[in-house]
Structure formats: structure tokens, C-alpha cells
Design goal:
The complex is a heterodimer of chains A (about 400) and B (about 240). With about 400 residues, chain A is mainly alpha-helical. Chain A has 15 helices and 4 strands. The chains are: A mainly alpha (about 400), B alpha/beta (about 240).
Amino acid sequence: MARHRLWVIAWKDALEFLRDRRSIGLMLVSAFLFPLLGLLVTGLKSQQQAPVVVEVCDSSKYAAELAALLLEALRDYVSFNVSIVNLSACRPVPGAAATIAIPPSFGANLSSLGGTAVIKIYEAIGNPAAVDAVGVAESVMQTYSEKMAEARVRILAEKAGIDINPDTVLHPLKIVREGVTPQGRPASPEEAQRASVARFLAFSVFFVLNPAALAVADAVSRERESGTGELLAITPLTGFEFVSGKALGSLTAALVAGGVDFLAAFAYAAATGFHVADMGLVALHAIETVLAVLVTMAVTILLTLLVPGQRAATLVTSLITGTAIMVFFAVLFVDVAALPLSVKTLLYLVPYTHTALAIEAYALGNLETTLIHTALLAVVTIASLIIAAAAYRPERLVKRH
Amino acid sequence: MLVVREAVKRFKRGPQVGPISFTVHSGELFALIGPNGAGKTTTIRMVLGIYSPDKGSVLVCGVEAARARGCAAYVPEETAVYPRLTGWEHLVFFSRLYARGRRDAEKLAHRAAEYTGLGDDLRRRVSTYSKGMRRRLLLGFALALETPLLVLDEPTSGLDVSSSVAMRRLIRSAADAGRAVLMSSHNMLEVERLADRVAFISRGRIVDEGRPSELVRKYSASDLEEAFVRAVGGDG
């Protein structure tokens, strides 16, 4: 075996990839899709002017006070066009995202010790701005309700002649939440943030897998479709040289993908206010991305060699990236360690599980688990390359007639 | 140089090719003529060692085709190029795959560059080449390998008149230089003028074989095209 042929294939594929503006462009677009989506939604929300109406159908000072508080809170958001109208009878306003109605006798009920003051909210169904407006209004009213409850407690305490803290009456149960590490040690705010950043970093790996898998599937199937596969098939090239050369050549794609993903993760962190200052986490994320891309490439080469035609290769790629997205989602929302052994074993057979778990384990300070998952990922990558090399036959490089 | 004996290739889907037998000697230009789907490509792939025959044998340079790497050079259709590489990079790439060391590869690439006659155009990307230039690139490399057997698949298909003439001249000169040349074509008139011997192939079998003039005479035809139609009985 002449190892130099491996590098010749790698050199050619790398050169072709770097000159393929479309694939690189696709990678960039895919990686930045997530942060761009966030920016787009924020940008569009800042442009929307959803009408929100506060109807005051009560002449009490309480109604006027609450209306003023609602107006102030909703006007803090540029996306709402808020107006206050004074009416004798409240009803939903056509075209408004939300109508907050303060009905007659609101003040009387609120100021009495045993009455319940009702606020009616008319929310336009299927309107995302209505959901946001109602959320803001509810928060204002909750605060106002607590203030009124405190006043009632004070009046009652005065009448009973006892000195009491209204807060302890209103909140007899106090919940204290504290984050802890898997070892049971209290987690610092930085550690808590690192853990949540890790979850999103693990998911962000997915965004580069699809274009990378497409690039390598294309690199193999293009040889077959264009006829260059026939020329390669008659050279002294061995299966190991072909597969390793293709994988190494595609490593350029993997490195570009890793770099792009790295930038996209930072862009998203900047856009959402996350703080990604842990360079260790960022470096590990880059390593895991490269390994995930490599294993994807090895599996893609193997399957592309086995299936005929470009369409089948695209289908294979979709299958691989579909599996990747399922795993990344599952790991985001499920505690893998708490799953039954049979389900856990199945998940561990999928290489992407180790990508996500390695990043998560590192963020939680568990270096040993990080190394185990990274090593497993590397083993699967090498095994896939060996199996793909064994599957190589010259006739698999030619277009089937 | 090339001996195909009762070679058969079966496919899971599609008809089988063979049994097929023919011989190509050194210094001879042998053409396989037949319509699309007749079995020309499968036969060529057996000769190149890409497909192993299910029955019979294909010997190139006296050994089984699959083990005769480096004994045959191949010129496929013009799409078999890397459009994002320059012509020179294309030659260097294949030279490095064949040669043992970097120096040998460089020599091979330079020799191939001379054969192509593309000059400064070799610095341009292959995507900018015409069909004729792509063929010259592929043929130039195949000639530079100086293998005893040269295999060509539809070498002039889709070329303009002057490119076709140049290509035919290069192919003929390879045979005249002592190499065995096997080519496939469905351009009967070209084959009639170029080939020393031809084989009519239809539905996976060789229907007849001989010198073009002999076949024309045998079927009382005015040219090879007519002889082919009579030989295959309207099947082609």
C-alpha cells in the first residue's frame, strides 16, 4: 500500500471543496440560520405595532390607577400600540390584539374587604402579539393584586389590633431554589450558566452536520455520476486509501464547518445575551463538532458506496442528519442517565449521543465522563472508516447502467 | 494483448452480457460497435477489471484483468473530469495516483501535458474547457501512461469536426506505435475508416466480427452501417 495516494485523494477533495462556493455558502447559511432566526424575530417584533386597548368602564381611582400602570408597562414595549378608552360598558374591540377591560364596580369590589374585582381580557386567538401583551398585563395586575392584598391585611391587622408583616400572611410558603452539580455541591451562577450554554452548544452541532454530510455524499456520488469513478477504479488505489483520502479531504469541510459553527455559536450567544467566556468549553465544542462531522462522513461514505445513484445518496444523508436532530433534541429535553438501560443502550449506539453528552458532562465539570464519550465517538469514527474501506469495490465507484 | 474468452456478466436487474469472445493484438485498433444498451460499457468494464466476469475470462497482458492494473489506460466520456481543478492539477492528480514517487509523478504529468497539446490552457479550470479540450486532457494522460492497452469509450462523440479529426489521428497513431487499442462507438462511418477490425455487438452478444471491408462485403452492404443493420437483423 502506498500511503501517498491517500494524501493525493485528500488534497484533490480539499481543493475541490474549497473551490466549491455553493457548499461553503450552504454551510454558512445553515450555521447562521439559528442566530439569524433569533435576530429576525427580535427585529420583526420591534417593527410590529399591535393594537392593545385598555377599556376603563369604572370611574374609581383604582381603575384609573391600574389603567395608568398598564399603559406605562405596555408602552415600554415598542411592539404595542396602547390606548386607553373610557366607556360605560366594556366589550372586545375589533382588530385589537388584546382588550383589557376594567368593568363597572371594579373599584368598589377592590376596596371592600370581601369583594373580588374582576378584570376581563379579550385575547385575539392565534395572534402571537396578543400572547405577549396579555403576559405583560398579567404581570402588572399580579403586582397590583398583591399590593391590594397587603392593604387588606393591614386593615384587618389594625382591626384585630395585632402587629403583623403582611408578606408572611400572604406568602406562608416560601420556595428557595438552588442549583447543584451532579455531585451535590451548590453550583455557582457561572456554573449554572455554563450548563445551560452547553445544552445549546450541543444542539448547535446539528446545524453543520447536514451540509457536511451532503458535501461528502456529493464527493463520492459525483465521482460515480461524472465517470471519474471509473478512472479511479482502474488506478492502483486501495479501499483504505480511497475511504481515508475522502474522509481526510472532507476534513477540510469538517474544519470549515467547525469554524463556522464556532462563530455562529458566538453570534447566537451575543444576540441572546449568553456569556460564553469559558474557552475550554468552546474548544471542546469545536473538537466534538469535528468528530461528529467526521463520523457523519465515515458513515455517509460507507452508505453512499453501498447505495446506487445520487438521489439515494441524498436520502442517506437525510437519514443520518434526521437521526442526529432526533438525538440532539432528545438529549436537550431528556435526562439520558435516568432512562431504562435498554433505551440508554440504544441511544449510546448512536454516535451523536456521545457528542451531546460529552459537551454536557464537560460543562458540569465531569472530565472523566467527557473523555469517555469523546473516546467512544473517536472509536465509532475509526470503526466506520474501517468498515467503509472494507466495503470498497472498484465496481461501486461506477455508475450502474 | 487482450483476450476475452466466453466472458459473461450477470446483473441482479437487467439483462446479462455475454458470452463474449474477442482478441485485440498489439498494434491493432479494434472497435466494438453497437447501439446504447448493447453491452459495450459492460464489456469495457470487464476489460478494465472493474467488473469481474461471472463466467469465462478476460486476460490483459496475460493476467486476469482485475490484477492487471497499470496495463490498460482508459479514456472515458468527456464528463469524467474534475471541473474545479485546473487542467494541470488534473494531470498531477492522476499522475500521483499512478506514479511511485513525486519525481516520477512530475515526469508523467509533464509528458501528459505535452500529449494534450493544451499549452497555457492547462492553467485554466477544467470547467472552462470545451468538450474537445476535455477529451484531449483525458486522452493526453492515457497516452502518457504508455500502457500496452488503450481503451476508449465513444472517443469522438459530441466533438466538432476539427476536434474529431485530431482525436482520430491521435488514436490511430497510438495503434501504429504498437499499442493495442479497444474502442467503443456507434459512429459506424468513423469506425469504418479508423479500425483494423470491428465487432458488431447487440443484446449483450457479438453478432459478427472482422475487418470493416470484409464485413461490408459479407453482408453485401454499401457501408458498415448497412452491414451492421443486416447483421443484427433489425435488432440494433
